[in-house]
Design a protein that fits this description.
Number of strands: 0
Largest sheet: none
Distance between the termini: 36 Å
Structural class: mainly alpha
Radius of gyration: 14 Å
Strand content: under 5%
């Protein structure tokens, strides 16, 4: 059973994630969305995005690196 606090925390987490992803370039944001948020295999994300699997991997890597920097520096 979920509590009101758990639901509220989930809403805040989704809002925080959306705000962070919005700070990424579109190509990185889309790759991270498909692979990290929705859990699609890289090959499936690549097919949906119309790019090579290696491109999705590099976009995810660059996007994660940028997110890490944003979280570490606060901006």
């Amino acid at each position: 059973m979920t509590t009101g606090g758990e639901i509220e925390s989930g809403v805040v987490l989704r809002a925080d994630l959306a705000g962070l992803l919005a700070r990424l370039p579109r190509d990185q944001r889309e790759a991270i969305w498909w692979v990290d948020v929705l859990g699609l295999p890289v090959e499936d994300a690549a097919a949906r995005l119309g790019v090579a699997a290696g491109t999705v991997k590099s976009r995810c890597h660059r996007g994660r690196s940028r997110l890490r920097l944003i979280l570490q520096t606060g901006g």
